[in-house]
Input
Amino acid sequence: MFQGETAITVDDKGRLAIPTAYRELVAGSCGNALVLTYNPFESGCLWLFPLAEWERVRDQVNALPSVKAVHRNLQMKLVGAAARIEPDSAARILLPASQRAAAGIEKKAVLLGMGAKFELWSELAHLAKIRQTISEDEISDEMSGLQL
Output
């Protein structure tokens, strides 16, 4: 289970270091095999999955009938763009240039532990998202039962 927010620096080669707090968890949960892909629902964000979790998601997405344009779009953004990556000896992962550019990730980024996966946000997109509040009319039935 990944959770927490970490400010990340991306080096000139497009690499970021996995935070120390997550290194053992990543190594143990997936043998350092990770998959990076687009977040199809939020701009400025990439998803980073442990391999086993990725395979579960990938199989569900690929099972959708491709006769619907929205299914093909989801398949393209998730499966078609997926890149398998492994940390190097310094626990750095290389982010593909095309994905960095599409998400607007430059020198500064934010890594969020989101349960079964990570979200990697551009610093500006994350700041904009975090500053948005949830209005009362957006609260779903599922949310109304939470005791926060």
Q: What stands out?
A: The radius of gyration is 16 Å.
